[in-house]
């Protein structure tokens, strides 16, 4: 008996609409996150992630509604990230139907936020989102960034990851800013470095361009793989990724 | 056949949206309430639970949860515990050095799993008895788990004429109890409401026993 590696499509959502090109042929409304989530569910996605890319106050309430409607007909775990700043934000997302909540910059500014959230709701709801780039400025050569990678912090990515786990993060979403958008595959060195220090599950993100890109991320130590555009473009189905992972001997959930 | 009624026990635990919708999809009429009479009268009572064992027990105790569950079981009225809603059916739970008394429906302790990576998060397969009613047709399916604590022993002996409990196991670092079918009291460590179509079928199997 073994735990299956998870394949997770990620949807960027703003004002209740999916942003970034979604190109499914059979969709009535390719911009509706609820319908798209349902499609991925039927394709065999193991989890779904919504990223609230705007996260303004108005947009927030729209997001709660999207989450609630999705949870009504998608029976897999749902993670929501983007703009989560307080324990109350987490409470509202969970009450709307999210199973896990992704926290990023707010935890950099105020690390106690992590212990506050896990103390209140448990580590299993708390995903620490890490946007990481390579930089000579830190000891490990990996630095944490904010603002979608445009702004470097002074935090060594590996030290921050370790501290976040101590504070109560239940999972790490490791997004390589360098690999993101390249379609050249995941940053395997980064995944391996995080795996080496992490006692919690690790999700590899950023860089997937082909079906063959996923198995190396698992080999590098990821427990799950996350991708957006490769799935949205319709180039690759979730089931095709799983077939390739299974071909490499990794356990996957099949429908 | 009229639709079965299920009450999802509303004692203030986390995400219950999907539990309600999943049980509805499985074919029941569902109500979210803590009303004692409604909890007693429904064909089935579903006890969800997320977060820390101690916090869930505190929330349950605040609304006489133990009494509501005990009364149902005394009258052979079905109860289904999910995740921490299963864990609290055991005698006690040990989390972070804190030992909390559970509802004590079953002997045994819930403690941290001995595994290199925790939480145990994701889709795992299960080892269900062949004659399991709840896993009928589902023995080869995976179910969604998210937890760090579990019961790793099952010690309850039941004497005839009562049927022996059916215990389903899973493994993450070590073997642990993934589900129990014990007369009117059933429970799962995994989340059927997050386990896709397999989870819905599991809930259908449970509804069929009500």
From TrEMBL, chain A:
Its main location: cytoplasm. GO terms for molecular function: imidazoleglycerol-phosphate synthase activity; lyase activity. One of its GO terms (cellular component) is cytoplasm. Its EC number is 4.3.2.10. InterPro entries: Aldolase_TIM (IPR013785), His_biosynth (IPR006062), HisF (IPR004651), IGPS_HisA/HisF (IPR050064), RibuloseP-bd_barrel (IPR011060). It comes from the Bacteria. The active site is at 12, 131. GO terms for biological process: L-histidine biosynthetic process. Keywords: Amino-acid biosynthesis, Cytoplasm, Histidine biosynthesis, Lyase. It is an enzyme of class 4 (lyase). It catalyses: 5-[(5-phospho-1-deoxy-D-ribulos-1-ylimino)methylamino]-1-(5-phospho-beta-D-ribosyl)imidazole-4-carboxamide + L-glutamine = D-erythro-1-(imidazol-4-yl)glycerol 3-phosphate + 5-amino-1-(5-phospho-beta-D-ribosyl)imidazole-4-carboxamide + L-glutamate + H(+). Pathway: Amino-acid biosynthesis; L-histidine biosynthesis; L-histidine from 5-phospho-alpha-D-ribose 1-diphosphate: step 5/9. Gene3D superfamilies: Aldolase class I. It is found in: Cytoplasm. PANTHER family: IMIDAZOLE GLYCEROL PHOSPHATE SYNTHASE HISHF (PTHR21235:SF2), IMIDAZOLE GLYCEROL PHOSPHATE SYNTHASE SUBUNIT HISF/H IGP SYNTHASE SUBUNIT HISF/H (PTHR21235). Heterodimer of HisH and HisF. NCBIfam families: hisF. Belongs to the HisA/HisF family. IGPS catalyzes the conversion of PRFAR and glutamine to IGP, AICAR and glutamate. The HisF subunit catalyzes the cyclization activity that produces IGP and AICAR from PRFAR using the ammonia provided by the HisH subunit. This is Imidazole glycerol phosphate synthase subunit HisF.
From TrEMBL, chain B:
Pathway: Amino-acid biosynthesis; L-histidine biosynthesis; L-histidine from 5-phospho-alpha-D-ribose 1-diphosphate: step 5/9. This is Imidazole glycerol phosphate synthase subunit HisH. It comes from Alpinimonas psychrophila. Residues 7-207 form the Glutamine amidotransferase domain. Gene3D superfamilies: 3.40.50.880. Heterodimer of HisH and HisF. Its main location: cytoplasm. Keywords: Amino-acid biosynthesis, Cytoplasm, Glutamine amidotransferase, Glycosyltransferase, Histidine biosynthesis, Hydrolase, Lyase, Transferase. It catalyses: 5-[(5-phospho-1-deoxy-D-ribulos-1-ylimino)methylamino]-1-(5-phospho-beta-D-ribosyl)imidazole-4-carboxamide + L-glutamine = D-erythro-1-(imidazol-4-yl)glycerol 3-phosphate + 5-amino-1-(5-phospho-beta-D-ribosyl)imidazole-4-carboxamide + L-glutamate + H(+); L-glutamine + H2O = L-glutamate + NH4(+). It comes from the Bacteria. One of its GO terms (biological process) is L-histidine biosynthetic process. Its EC number is 4.3.2.10, 3.5.1.2. HAMAP family: HisH. One of its GO terms (cellular component) is cytoplasm. GO terms for molecular function: glutaminase activity; imidazoleglycerol-phosphate synthase activity; lyase activity. The active site is at 83 (nucleophile), 191, 193. Pfam families: GATase. Coiled coil: none annotated. NCBIfam families: IMP_synth_hisH. IGPS catalyzes the conversion of PRFAR and glutamine to IGP, AICAR and glutamate. The HisH subunit catalyzes the hydrolysis of glutamine to glutamate and ammonia as part of the synthesis of IGP and AICAR. The resulting ammonia molecule is channeled to the active site of HisF. It is found in: Cytoplasm.
